[in-house]
Design goal:
Order of helices and strands: EEEHEEHEHHHEHEHEEHEHEEHEH
CATH superfamily of one domain: P-loop containing nucleotide triphosphate hydrolases
Number of helices: 11
Number of strands: 14
Distance between the termini: 36 Å
Radius of gyration: 24 Å
Shape: globular
CATH topology of one domain: Rossmann fold
CATH architecture of one domain: 3-Layer(aba) Sandwich
Strand content: 25-35%
Largest sheet: 6 strands, mixed
Length: 316
Amino acid sequence: MPALEILGLQKNYTVGFWRKREREALKPLHLTVEDNEVFGFLGPNGAGKTTTLKLLMGLIYPTSGSARILGMDWREPMVKAQIGFLPEQPYFYDYLTAQELLEYYGSLSGVPAREQRRRASTMLERVGLKDAARLQLRKFSKGMLQRVGIAQAILHDPKMIFLDEPTSGLDPMGRREVRDLIHGLQDEGKTVFFSTHILSDAESLCDRVAVIHNGELRGVGVVAELVHRGKAADETEIVWHGLHAAEAIKHLGGKCRIVGDTVRATLPASQLEAALERIRGSQCKILSVNPVRTTLEDYFLETVGVSPHSAIEVSR
C-alpha cells in the first residue's frame, strides 16, 4: 500500500482587486509515494511545493482533487496522529525553552504525560540540541530553530514525515546531521516526503524525486534513471600535473582550467585516446580520467527550462 497518493489535487487563488481573476497555483497533481521511501519534491521558489504540503496538511482547502495518506482519506483525524510536519518557516513562542516547547507539543500530539519529558530530551539530543535544552528560543539561531522544528515533527513517532525545506538555514555540519537523521528515519521504517531547492541534498538522500515548476509536475523517477535518461556521457575529464600538454589538448577541442601546475580539461570522449597520447608524450603525470556525469542539476534545469543563473540554490 502506498504511503501517499495524491489524486488530482488542484488549488486556484483569486487575485486582483477590481478585476478579479483566477490564478492556478497548483495544477491537478497526481503523485504516489511508496512506503518507507525518501521522496524529494523539487522546484524553484514559487513552484507550488509549499502549496502542495499545505493542502496535504489541511491548512488550506483544494479547489478540486483528493489524497490518501497511509491508506486513509487525508482529512481523517486519525491521519493527523500518524504524520509529522515541519513548515518552511516555523514560528515558536520565543520565551519557551526548547525542552518546554517539545513537552508542550508532546501533550498536543498525545504523548503520555509520563513520557513527555524523556521523549523531548531524546529528540533534542537526536537533532544536536542537547546542550541548548534550557535555552529560550529567542536566543536560538535560524539553524537551531530549524532543528527544533524537525524535533517537534518526529516527537510523537509518526509513520510519515513531511518536511518543507528541512535544510534551509543550516550550516554544512547541520545539513549533514539532518541528512543522517532522514536516513535514520528511513531505517526505522518511516516514510519521508520533503521539499527542497537544494539539489545536492535531494541527489544524496532520495530514492525518488519529482520536479514541479509553475504548479505543474514535470517529471518523476529514480535519481539515477532521471539523470541518465536518453543521455550518454559524451565528454571526458582528464586531470594531470604539468603545463606542457595544455595547448595540445586545446587543439583537440578541450577546455582547460589551470590551477598551479595542475590542469583539468574537459574534451569530447572521441578525442580521449589522442589526448592521453599527447599528455604522455609531454612527460606529464595523469591524475585521473573520468566520464563527465550528468547531474540532477542538469536534469532539473533541462526539465524546468531555466538558465543556470535562476534562483536555484545548488549546494556542492
